[in-house]
Specification:
Number of strands: 9
Helix content: 25-40%
Largest sheet: 7 strands, mixed
Shape: globular
CATH class: Alpha Beta
CATH topology: Aminopeptidase
CATH architecture: 3-Layer(aba) Sandwich
Distance between the termini: 30 Å
Number of helices: 8
């Protein structure tokens, strides 16, 4: 599959009606118990953010996936909320990471004094791994103690995880469209990010999402670059 991408911005140039219909189909096939039009309105149209950044992934002329970032103000902070979905044949974690990192870094460089966090819900162990593997500091994780007060503030309607007693879960009204085989594969995987996600959020296959917070800073950027080089060295070792 030869997938290309196109980027859009709410404040400059947005998608057309044909692309919207493709996105509705991606949403319909990516989740269970969902109303695609309602979900689209909530994420792509409601005036609850000051900017949206969108990357469409396209095979030929057909949209096969997307990564959406919403920039919101919360008290004295900027919170970047994100969501992504792909047709099953186009799923690949690295599809979204470079886009998210680039847009977050660009905003931080333009606003160096602002306190910025990514804060979003992840229904998928695969999405958590795609983010946690290259990022230096992500909460919750087994490496870094999470700031409980920040979770209470940014996820006030969330529920506590029995694994870490942190308000880092949220019951949603839809589910990822993983098969029973996919779910079992996640639960029995030896990959550390999958194991941790399933420990913290054992009911991910029932519509419970993990709320993830990532600080956006120059320190984060530098440490993440170093981590990426370290991961490459480990993977290339005999």
């Amino acid at each position: 599959m030869n997938i290309k991408h196109q980027d859009y911005s709410q404040s400059q140039c947005w998608i057309n009606q044909e692309q919207k219909q493709d996105l509705l189909e991606v949403i319909r096939l990516s989740f269970r118990n969902i109303e695609p039009e309602k979900h689209y309105q909530n994420r792509f149209e409601i005036d609850d953010c000051f900017e949206r950044k969108l990357r469409l992934f396209i095979n030929g002329t057909k949209v096969v996936g997307y990564c959406l970032l919403l920039f919101k103000r919360h008290r004295n902070r900027v919170i970047i909320d994100g969501s992504a979905a792909f047709l099953p044949s186009a799923r690949h974690g690295s599809n979204t990471m470079m886009f998210c990192l680039l847009e977050a870094a660009k905003y931080k460089l333009k606003h160096p004094t602002q306190q910025i966090f990514y804060g979003g819900y992840m229904l998928s162990p695969a999405m958590y791994r795609a983010v946690a593997k290259p990022i230096a500091t992500i909460w919750p994780s087994k490496e870094t103690p999470p700031p409980a007060r920040l979770f209470d503030e940014l996820n006030p309607l969330g529920i506590f995880s029995p694994h870490n007693q942190l308000r880092c879960l949220r019951a949603l009204d839809f589910q990822s469209s993983y098969s029973a085989q996919d779910v079992q594969s996640f639960r029995t995987s030896h990959k550390s990010e999958f194991r941790y996600y399933c420990q913290v959020n054992p009911d991910f296959d029932r519509g419970v999402a993990l709320f993830v917070i990532i600080p956006v800073s120059l320190k984060q950027l530098i440490l993440s670059i170093l981590k990426r080089f370290k991961n490459k060295e480990i993977s290339s070792s005999p």
